[in-house]
Structures are given as C-alpha cells and as structure tokens.
Amino acid sequence: MNEMPPLSFGLDETVIVMNAWRRLCAFMSLIEQRSPSPEIEVLARDLIAPSMMELGDLYDRIPPEQLKAATLAPGTWTPNFRDPCWRRYPAKK
C-alpha cells in the first residue's frame, strides 16, 4: 500500500477541511442518536459516510502542527453539545 504524502495547506484551507470533517461527524452522530427512518439511514450510508471517509483521509494527511494551529484559529467550528439543537429532546424550561 502506498503511503500518501502529507498535505500542506494554508491556515484558512486547513480550517475549512477540519470544519467540514467535524460537521459531518457531528451530523452522523445526530443521525445515529435519533433512530432515523430507513430512507435517512440509506442516505447516510450511501452518500454521507463515503464523503466522510474521503474527507477523513484528507484530514489524516494534514500534518499535526497544521491541525493544532487550525484548532486555535478564528473560525474553527466545534460542536457545542450543550446547545439544545444537539440533544434528542429539547431541554425543559
């Protein structure tokens, strides 16, 4: 198996790749938690999961120091799991 060479992106591009990967992972997590309909499961399995794998492969090729810098950069997205939109049921008022 050929090892893929590391990717060297600028900070903005690294943030874009990292944000996209994190958003897809969070979305898939939500789908798995909510007992989706069979149609949504097929959509997730056939469309989203392959995209996640491809993006994950790209993400894995970014050198750790670039990812560390991107994690601290403005515009980096991290899911806030305390936000009600990430919960299965809305918080009681």
Major sheet, described briefly?
Answer: none
In N-to-C order, the SSE pattern is HHH
Q: Helicity range of the residues?
A: 55-70%
Secondary structural class: mainly alpha
Distance between the termini: 55 Å
Strand content: under 5%
Q: Round the Cα radius of gyration to an integer and report it.
A: 16 Å
Task: Tell me about this structure.
The protein has helices at 11-33, 38-60, 64-71. It has a domain at 11-67. The model is unreliable at 88-93 (pLDDT under 50). It has 93 residues and is mostly helical.
Give a short synopsis of this structure:
The protein has 3 helices and no strands. Helix content is 58%, strand content 0%.
SSE order and pairing:
Blueprint: H1 11-33, H2 38-60, H3 64-71
Helix pairs in contact: 1-2, 1-3
Tags for this entry?
0% strand, 93 residues, mainly alpha, single chain
